[in-house]
Amino acid sequence: MSVTESAPPVQQRGRWPGPIRLRRGWARADARPWNDRTPDANLRIIRGGASFLDACTAWLIGSGAPSVLSPPLGSGAAKTWESVGYQRSVPLSLMRLELAQPVPAPNHLVVSDDVVLDDLLRIDHAAFDDFWQFDRVGLEEAIKATSNARTLTIRGPEADPVAYAVIGLGHAISYLQRLAVHPDWQRSGMGRSLVRASARVARTAGTRAMVLNTQQQNEPAIRLYTSEGFVTQPEPLTVLRRS
Ligand SMILES: CC(C)(COP(=O)(O)OP(=O)(O)OC[C@H]1O[C@@H](n2cnc3c(N)ncnc32)[C@H](O)[C@@H]1OP(=O)(O)O)[C@@H](O)C(=O)NCCC(=O)NCCS
């Protein structure tokens, strides 16, 4: 006689659509809508294997998410997602700036940490298309992604912020989590000033290098980062999707 054991159901805390925690036994995952313009789910496995990933994905699609997207993953981690039907959807370049040498000064006055989230969201919504823009949850998540974060802004003539960057400071590596310049102010050197100011903050904090990821098709951003000394790493990242 054979006995077929079925896995216990995934349990959730929180209400979908909204930030939720999914669990099954010891396995844990966080999910939230991609942003407030895109109903797809963004899923992050905290601990658990392919079967839990598969179950979380089924739960989210069963709850109305048109598709589920992974975080940016290297090819090793991507294999687990591919094993349960995810496909590579958005190729990203991983770029790195060594901070051994001093970083040139920015050409604009850059202010640190004096921010109102609504101001940053206004810039972000104008700068990014619907899919890539942050909603409040995404912005707060980016700021809280590391225990030590800084937000930098450049103000326009009316003293309102028109460009911003979010930096996460780790022990050895810092992360340029976000960079956006309002379209009215693009091509006036503000992006370059924020990259420099971010790298100077990271260097002063004692980190050895700054890393970031960006869409491979984002030519303006890649040109900017390359001209400031960032080097594209051999292994790209990818966001995977399952519908
Ligand atoms: C990418 C971005 C931050 C650049 O900011 P910016 O203030 O316009 O850039 P700068 O004026 O400092 O330009 C610096 C360099 O970037 C490159 N660059 C900027 N915009 C460019 C464009 N539209 N086309 C080609 N190269 C561009 C150029 O090499 C430029 O140097 P140059 O002016 O000497 O030619 C801005 O276009 C933006 O906010 N884009 C939307 C959001 C985004 O993609 N953020 C980055 C995500 S990783």
Give a quick set of tags describing it.
Aminopeptidase; 27% helix; binds coenzyme A; 13 strands; alpha+beta
SSE diagram, text form:
Layout: E1 11-13, E2 20-24, E3 27-35, E4 38-47, H1 50-62, E5 68-69, H2 75-82, E6 87-98, E7 111-112, H3 117-127, H4 136-144, E8 149-155, E9 161-169, E10 173-181, H5 190-204, E11 209-215, H6 219-227, E12 231-232, E13 237-242
Parallel strand pairs: 4-5, 10-11
Antiparallel strand pairs: 1-2, 2-3, 3-4, 5-13, 6-11, 6-12, 6-13, 7-8, 8-9, 9-10
The chain binds coenzyme A (COA).
Written overview of the protein:
This protein has about 240 residues and is of the alpha+beta class. Among the domains are: about 10-70, no CATH class; about 100-205, Aminopeptidase, CATH 3.40.630. The protein has helices at about 50-60, 75-80, 115-125, 135-145, 190-205, 220-225, and strands at about 10-15, 20-25, 25-35, 40-45, 70, 85-100, 110, 150-155, 160-170, 175-180, 210-215, 230, 235-240. The site of coenzyme A has 20 residues, from strand 10, helix 5 and helix 6.
